[in-house]
Amino acid sequence: MEQHILYTIAAILSVAIFTFLWRDNPFYKFAEHLVVGVSAGYFVVILVTTSLIPKLLDPAKRVLAGASTTLLDPLVVIPAILGLLLFTRFIPKYAWISRIPIAYILGVGSGAAIPLVLQTYVIQQIYPTMTLFQPGSFNGTGALVNNILILGAVLCGLAYFFFSARHEGVIGGMSKAGIWILMIGFGASFGYTVMSRISLLYGRVDFLVFEWAGPLVRLISG
Amino acid sequence: MAGTRGFQLERHLVFLLIFLAVLVPLFLPAPKTVRVTPEVKSVYDRIEGLQAGEIVMLPCEYDPSMAAEMSPMTMAVLRQCFRKDLRVLVTCLVSNGVSLVESELRQMAEEWGRKYGEDYVYLGYKPYPGIVIMAMGEDFRVPFPTDYYNTPLDEIPMMKGVKNYQNVALVLTINSTSGIDYWIIYGTGRYKFPLACASTAVMAPNYYNYLQSGQLFGLIGGLRGAAEYEQLVGHPGKAVKGMLVQSVSHILIVALILLGNVIFIVERRRRRS
Description:
The complex is a heterodimer.
Chain A: H1 2-18, H2 26-64, H3 74-86, H4 99-130, H5 141-160, H6 169-220
Chain B: H1 2-23, H2 38-48, E1 55-61, H3 67-83, E2 87-91, H4 98-112, E3 120-124, H5 129-138, E4 170-175, H6 179-191, E5 195-199, H7 208-213, E6 219-221, H8 222-233, H9 238-272
Parallel strand pairs in B: 1-2, 1-4, 2-3, 4-5, 5-6
Helix pairs in contact in B: 1-9, 3-4, 3-8, 5-6, 8-9
């Protein structure tokens, strides 16, 4: 019975969201606000229970109980202080202090990301394109045609974004081909996007028909 | 104003048609077969080739809004892992999906009679996925001193001798977020473990280049990928059933695009004349 009640609430909220397809209305607004509120609340609870309590409050409790000295660990103390300094954003007079933890976050983030991003997004992507025609790197005519297409598409795509020369002659032809390559890519993305959205609609309709309405009708009809 | 009203009615008619295109096929029989693509087969074969007892890591990163597309993948992969007596290590680096992933994991474990702590472990959520992924490369205990249920990892039998990615056979991230990029950059980019991804259909085209470069060994894209996997596992479910819905909806959308273009061309000619 409890499940039927929960599913009925979910069904009502799903239908409330769908009413936006007719026009904006209070039912849709209510459901939308509820989603945002519940998501934010859930996020805060998860963050507190999985991070703040085990990483900071529990060690603090143990220190206060005299059972440990974990809180004196620099790996706990320094992040805790930096975290607290972020809250100075709310005091205009001391807001500048929050730049210290922000700078730390940016520094660590950049330090970790820049070499790895360059490695994974650039070097490891260029390498297979450069070695497409190495002996043993492909087998069969189909693979060879694919490799020619990939290399041609990469060069034409790059030519389209190459603004240091006029797009005339060979560069012009390549950049025109590059536009087509990009359009084909966008087309594939659009097709996949349609598929994704239909999947989500299918999920909701399947829920409404088979998980909510069906069992409810069976329950009512005894 | 009349024109606007006409447009409104047309729009609503399109919505109604799409709704019917999704609803009607639900009552028709599901397709018998789905053609399996190499990128999905690659994931299946890799897991199928593992020995009983090896650990598969499944970072499941999606929330309820994406469950329709992602859950069938998770269920199909878990079904294969448990059928092969593989051990499963699951994380969820998306805060709003923590309970959802946990319930799906528990449901599949109960179905196969698998025991928590011996056959599977759920580490749960920690913020900042990039940092967590890098920290797990050193030791799972750095970001996750305890599992989702607050049991220290050292007290969990399955985690004995399991330190970091070197102790897992492969990582398959089932992901509806940009977290896949984190797994590519901070995960396999730095620690060089075998990585595959299962993504939403919207995201799938973005990851084919990583497949071609060898940074990913496989890719399960959207509900279609999930349907292929369900078929490979030999347990057709919601995803396979959804393929008929997809086909009918796509035919309708293509027809509507063509109709829209015809109307546009006719209107333009009429205005010119």
